[in-house]
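lol ok so funny story. i was supposed to be doing the assay writeup but got distracted and ended up predicting the structure for this chain instead. priorities right. anyway since i did it might as well share w the group, maybe its usefull for someone
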Amino acid sequence: MKFDTGQSIEKIATRFGYSEALIRLLDQNKDILVLDADLAKSTTTSLVQDRYPDHFVDVGIAEQNLVGIAAGISLNGTTPFISTYAAFLAGRAFDQIRTTVCYSNLNVKFAGMHTGITVGEDGPTHQMLEDIALMRVLPNMTILNPCDYNEAVKATLAADNLKGPVYIRFVRESTEVFTKKNDRFVVGEANELLKGKDLTFISSGPILYKALQAAEELINEGYSIRVLNFHTIKPLDNDAIIKAAMETKGILVIDEHQIYGGLGTAVSEVIAMNNLDVLYKLIAVEDRFLTSGKPEELLNMTGFTKENIKRIAKEMITQKKSGT
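and the output, tada:
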């Protein structure tokens, strides 16, 4: 499979895929209600409000109430989709998500907005890098992390078809749209974007594009790199990890999250529990809070560059060949 990783590629923020999908669902007369916490413009649910005002509720700056109200609505058969910044949703309303929604396995869909490093200038209070860890430990929770606008639409539509709580991760900044509208999207199954035998890259969310860029440059240099898109973080595609470990003997995870508890940790758990003989490394935020700054500056600061990915990949391939 060949991807266009050139400079002319279209860029759209994944959060716009969320509102696009919600409008599609409402166009189909789906029984859903969209709730927000006074951030409708930022989360893009104002677009839903404009078109379907009777299917939109703004609860104000009250994230814990937002979750409680959604839980009650779900008991009447309506599917609530709720959105606010992930720092306030996964963080501030964790108790309500855990005890009110997940404990009773209620059909509530959570849209965690402005995740990751690329929220940039909003600073460490809003750069949510712990949400996957928080949501991953909750029984009954499904976690989706779309890599671009097209996947954001698919993830939101897929969430409507699932029973039980679903957490979807979105970013604020415009990011590259590099998948196609008709690409396969099955919850719980990773997509193989590039085939390879020297090393496997595993990633999810928009940072996956950096991994693809690095992989294509390495391929042009004569290396063979497999790239797996883990758009579903829970349930995890264990089979894809085991297959990659056995066939390439090396896995590099690129995870825009804290080093603990995210996709990288999930992959390492599969490796450990299956006693896999594989060289494993992780690029993630090294257990620290960042600072305010432009998204690219922060990505560079934390090693999320194609140059750094390539450097580590070459080191891993050399280490594999030497047997050290």
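The chain is about 40% helix and 20% strand. The mean pLDDT is 96.
back to the writeup now i swear
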